[in-house]
Design brief:
By secondary structure, the protein is mainly β. It is built from 1 helix and 8 strands; from the N terminus they run E-E-E-E-H-E-E-E-E.
Length: 154
């Protein structure tokens, strides 16, 4: 079992600051994930002291990608050396944004894998994600992602 406190999420996502929108993975298995992200003043998606809608969608995508991305790594690979992943949103099927959090607050994102198709080179998946600030639902969405390990030749 992976000790999530020892994982540096930046080793597992292709994003780098200032575009990294996940600080910590709280729970992770083959079907679900939850992440934490503190909204900082210097974030790219801050408008009038609020983390905007685009930032919320990007946080959802990065959260969702960790479910499928996990399968490209060995369970004991806490440094993220086993794969070189790239991923992108292939479709946003539904998104509802109820509110945007203010700078200084922390959001919790919870995602669930609803379908997945794998080939030797990539995975296509559909996921549901909800983002909360404490008990308040900020975003609900359904999206498709494509994830590919660049170390695997076509």
């Amino acid at each position: 079992m992976i000790d999530l406190d020892k994982i540096d999420v930046s080793n597992f996502l292709p994003h780098r600051p200032p575009f990294l929108m996940v600080d910590k993975v709280l729970t992770l298995n083959d079907e679900q994930v939850s992440t934490l992200f503190k909204i900082k003043e210097d974030n790219l998606f801050i408008e009038n002291n609020y983390f905007n809608e685009i930032g919320l969608v990007e946080n959802a995508a990065q959260t969702c990608s960790s479910i499928v991305g996990k399968s490209f790594f060995n369970d004991d690979d806490i440094k993220g050396e086993g794969a070189n992943l790239i991923g992108f949103i292939s479709a946003i099927k539904k998104v509802t944004i109820f509110s945007c959090p203010i700078v200084g607050n922390t959001i919790i994102s919870k995602a669930k894998l609803t379908s997945r198709y794998d080939t030797n080179n990539y995975s296509i998946c559909s996921l549901e994600c909800n983002i909360y600030e404490e008990e308040t639902l900020l975003l609900s969405c359904v999206m498709n992602l494509v994830i590919k390990d660049l170390k695997i030749a076509l």
